[in-house]
Structure formats: structure tokens, C-alpha cells
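Aim 2 progress update. The chain analyzed this quarter is reproduced below.
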Amino acid sequence: MAKEPRFSPAVKLSFAGGHNHNEDRAVCVDQAGLRLLAAFDGCGGVGGRRYPHLNNHTGAYLAAGLYARCLEQWFADHAAPPGKVTADELTLLFAHTAARYQAEHLRLAPSAVTGSLVRTLPSTTVIALYNKTQAALYWAGDTRAYLLTEGGLRQLTADDLATPADAFASLYADAPIANYLCADRPFSLHETTVALPKAGILVLATDGAFHTLPTPMHFEALLLDTLWLSDSKKQWKKLLKEQLSACAADDVTLLLQPFGFAAHDEMRRAFDKRRRHVRQAYILPAEEAAPGNHLALKSLWDMYQKE
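Predicted C-alpha cells:
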């Protein structure tokens, strides 16, 4: 009999939205009884400077790849369970990595985009160290972690925005990101450790996965509807990509880590009641509201939050 895998396979989705090169990166690796999950979103606005000697890639593209690689190497060398790794440790790791890469590779004159608002190697991130019972989370920027259970979708991280906004308001307010990884300004990662329930799905997402949807409830509905329509994790990933590709205006990265389920069909059935509730209580009323009726959507969001 084959040995049962230590972790349930994750759904890992990352693709470019609207241009040739994906400036996001996803990480999913195992080491010493731990799983590392991470999403990086190179900041395309402040990281739009191109480097001709590096295949004309943008700083955002280089940043996401650089931080993902250095995190994977750190994890291979220093894997530690939730609670044993500090945000300060990871902040120093990324700061030193960015400074070293800048000194070694970015001293040649860049092209095109310059100015005081341009940053070197900018990227947001969310990182999860996961061991089935706990998840230690570290983040900077507006790349998020969620926990999806039969009771609903709960955001575990708080966006780093210059003007504070909740998950609904941030969809309609163009608030700049106040804190992100980069080589030429101070930054810091936040951290929290979450005790996981017996069953659920840990979700990591860059803003391309949720920012083009009308409400946060639509993001939960997207996850649950595609899950219900799928017969395997492979098909779930395919359906998610089809749905998100149709509306995404930015690169999309989505990592879904199920736990506590013996099979995909068990997970589908466990979330069906919640799926039907979200659609009946929130999505159908939102669709029936007049187009652009912000007050109606805000009222639904207020109800959703109370759950």
C-alpha cells in the first residue's frame, strides 16, 4: 500500500493578465515536515523601470522572481515550524537579498521609467509556514491570506495601504500601497500565527485574483462555485483560470491548500451548503441590484461581515 502523503496537494495557479510576462510568483515546497506557501506580486507601477541588460525585464518582474528564489533557498536551509520564525528574520532576508542583487546587477543605467516614485525591486508578498495544525503568516502589501471553512471566507491579513480601507472599500478606492519589499526604502513584514480547524482551505492570493470582482463575496463565490463544478483539483484549477482570465486586469496568483479532507469529492460536498447560502444571500441580490448601485453592494457587504 502506498504511503499517504504528508500534505494534501495544493492548487497552484499563476498567470499573466493582459501582458506578456507574469510579474507574480508562487511558491509551494516541502521540507522537514513543513510546507512553505508564498505569493509574490511585483509592483508594476513603481517597478515599471526596465533593465536592457537583463532581457529588458521590469524591476517588478525581477523582484518577484528574486524574492521567491531566495525564500525557497532559505526554507531549504532553515525550515522551522510556525512560531519559530520571526517577521524580522524574513525582513532582513529580503532586504539583504535586494541590496546584494542591486549592487551586483542593477548598477547599469536603466531605460525609460525614472522618477521619485519609481522603486528598485518592489514586490508585495504573503508567506505561510504550514504544518496541518497551524499556519504562521508573514506579509507586506496587499497580497492576502484567507481561511475558507464551512462557516465562510475569513481574511487573515490586513492590507498595507496609505489610506486604510476594508476589503470592500479597497475595490473602489485607488489607495497606494504603503509597505512592500524593495531595495531602496525601509519595509517590514507583519506576522501572525493561526490555529487551523480540523478541515478547511488556506488561501493565498495576489490582488489580481480579487480586485476585479464587484465584492469580496464574489471572491468566495468564485472559489466555491468552481469547486462544486470540479471533479478533481486539476479541474478546479482549470475552472478558476478560465473564470479569472475572463475578468483579470492584472497578473493572478492563487494558492489553495486544503486540509482535513480525505478526497476531493468530500471537500466539494462539505462546502456545498455554504456555496448555496452565499449565492442566495449575496450574489443573487447583487446581480438584481441596478448596475453600479454601490450602496446596495455596500449593504450586502455589511451583512456579510456580520457573519
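Residues 11-306 form a domain with the Phosphatase 2c; domain 1 fold (CATH 3.60.40.10). Residues 264-288 form the longest helix (25 residues). These observations will guide the mutagenesis experiments scheduled for the next reporting period.
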